[in-house]
Automatic annotation (TrEMBL):
GO terms for molecular function: alpha-L-fucosidase activity. Residues 411-487 form the Alpha-L-fucosidase C-terminal domain. Residues 25-362 form the Glycoside hydrolase family 29 N-terminal domain. Pfam families: Alpha_L_fucos (PF01120), Fucosidase_C (PF16757). Residues 1-25 form the signal peptide. GO terms for cellular component: lysosome. It comes from Anaerobaca lacustris. The keyword Signal applies. Keywords: Glycosidase, Hydrolase, Signal. This is alpha-L-fucosidase. It comes from the Bacteria. Alpha-L-fucosidase is responsible for hydrolyzing the alpha-1,6-linked fucose joined to the reducing-end N-acetylglucosamine of the carbohydrate moieties of glycoproteins. GO terms for biological process: fucose metabolic process; glycoside catabolic process.
């Protein structure tokens, strides 16, 4: 017996010497100084492409003014200032001035909702993770939240009013069956929650904390996209305390990924990854980051948006490539209709991205940014709003458009994996493509992803000059962007 006890003690001592990450031994204090030392889980850093979903009661009116978010409908029709605005005028015309927002809940029926069909679309898109709005700023929950009903004093979740279904739970099951990670957006604040309006500290204690823990405990999400944090400091939200529980004691403590929206002091300072919204993302850097945006101007479905408002498949694919080349992830949003269907244009865009990734995903998933992210043509480079959190200047069509006199455009994007370099061109390359400042080795080989035949190339000083294969239109492996794979790069 003494012998076995001695071995046990030796094994425990060995585990301690191996470091705090072994067997989940690492514990984090309820301080940003400690929490920020936690590495972002590797699966998320490798995933690169996720799908955001804004869906809720606001999907019934599905309306916004140009360039605005339809999910802010309730807020935009509320208050004296709103009474003279276009949102209220529309609401009064369509539903009447005595129609409260809460009356949209019974109309949110999701009668055509098929979570398996959604999951199949997501799988075909090539996305590696999903982030669904568990609740937005209106407080309406897509799962049977007791806290929602209690604090609002009425049924205010999808099981008790509207669809009478656990929308979030059903999608979680379907998505995971496809091998895709499932995460949730969660708004810390709720515009008109009675507790929030009267006693914010009590709201955090009695509503937000138990509701957040219920969501995590029930469904074990691997991404938490927090939002609605800007009215209070993270200490008032008690975010450090909540994160310590999540990262120490929840079932997902080793795998969950958290963003940076935990208080008005926290963006680009605290959390697992930095967020930007309808912008250009970060120029580069070592800290994980993610750009989120819709396909048009709104996250939630807006019936006022036309085809011209939507980014083309080419633009979305080039955004993904550009963001990944700078070390980021793209979280691309869809806004389903209130009946539970994904608008066909959104489905089409996702499938088009997936078609490109089927050929070229090797140059996206699991890659890292190279010593330089892009190669420009000669001329003046356009301005880009790198590093801004919200709605920065970023026109991928301008950045990758045909070269013009005195105007530079991106000629090549770069990603890397091990000693392999991927050179991604946003146009079918010229017959001879020069890739600058690449240190190759005697074993280097160059191929084009999706093309069976070999690619001829030569060194020219520190440059690699590639002879682009002559292909017929039927032989071209994909559309929109093309990948040259260069092995054994030093």
């Amino acid at each position: 017996m003494k012998r076995w006890m001695g071995l046990f003690v030796l094994c425990c001592f060995a585990l301690l010497l191996m470091g705090p990450g072994v067997c989940g031994a690492q514990r984090y204090e309820a301080k940003w100084e400690s929490i920020d030392k936690r590495p972002t889980p590797q699966w998320w850093v490798d995933a690169k492409f996720g799908i955001f979903i804004h869906w809720g009661v606001y999907s019934v009116p599905a309306w916004s003014t140009p360039g605005q978010y339809s999910e802010w409908y309730w807020n935009r029709i509320t208050g004296d200032k709103a009474k003279n605005g276009p949102w209220w005028q529309y609401h009064k015309k369509m539903y009447g001035e005595n129609f409260p927002y809460a009356e949209f809940a019974p109309m949110f029926k999701a009668e055509l909702y098929d979570p398996d069909q959604w999951a199949d679309i997501f799988h075909r898109s090539g996305a590696k993770y999903i982030v669904l709005t568990s609740k937005h700023h209106d407080g309406y929950c897509l799962w049977p939240s007791r806290e929602a009903n209690r604090s609002w004093g009425r049924p205010w979740n999808s099981v008790d009013i509207g669809p009478n279904r656990d929308l979030l739970g059903e999608l979680t099951e379907s998505v995971r069956a496809k091998g895709i990670e499932m995460g949730f957006y969660y708004s810390l604040y709720e515009w008109y929650n009675p507790l929030w309006v009267t006693d914010r500290a009590l709201y955090v204690e009695k509503h937000m904390f138990p509701q957040f823990k219920d969501l995590v405990t029930r469904y074990e999400p691997t991404v938490i996209f927090s939002d609605g944090e800007w009215d209070m400091h993270s200490s008032e939200w008690r975010s450090e305390e909540l994160m310590a529980w999540l990262l120490n004691d929840s079932a997902v403590k080793d795998r969950v990924v958290i963003n940076d929206r935990w208080g008005k002091d926290s963006r680009h300072k605290h959390g697992g990854y930095w967020t930007t919204e309808y912008g250009a993302g970060l120029a580069s850097g070592t800290h994980p980051w993610e750009e989120c945006r819709g396909m048009a101007h709104s996250f939630g479905y807006s019936r006022t948006e036309s085809l011209s408002d939507y980014k083309s498949a080419r633009e979305l694919i080039l955004m993904l490539i550009d963001i990944v080349s700078r070390g980021g992830n793209l979280l691309l949003d869809i806004g389903p209709d209130g009946d539970g269907t994904i608008p066909v244009i959104m489905e089409e865009r996702l499938i088009q991205i997936g078609d490109w990734l089927k050929v070229n995903g090797e140059a996206i998933y699991g890659t890292r940014n190279w010593k330089k992210t892009i190669q420009w043509t000669e001329g003046k480079r356009p301005e880009v709003g790198y590093g801004q959190e919200y709605k920065a200047k970023y026109d991928i069509a301008e950045l990758t458009g045909p070269p013009a006199p005195e105007k530079a455009v991106i000629d090549i994007f770069f990603t890397t994996k091990g000693d392999t370099l991927y050179a991604i061109t946003p146009r079918w390359p010229r017959s001879e493509l020069v890739i600058e400042d690449v240190e190759v080795s005697p074993n280097t080989n160059v191929t084009m992803l999706g093309v069976a035949q070999s690619v001829e190339w030569r060194r020219s000083g520190r440059n690699v000059v590639v002879q682009v294969p002559g292909l017929s239109i039927d032989e071209v492996p994909c559309q929109h962007a093309y990948v040259l794979k260069i092995t054994h790069v030093r």
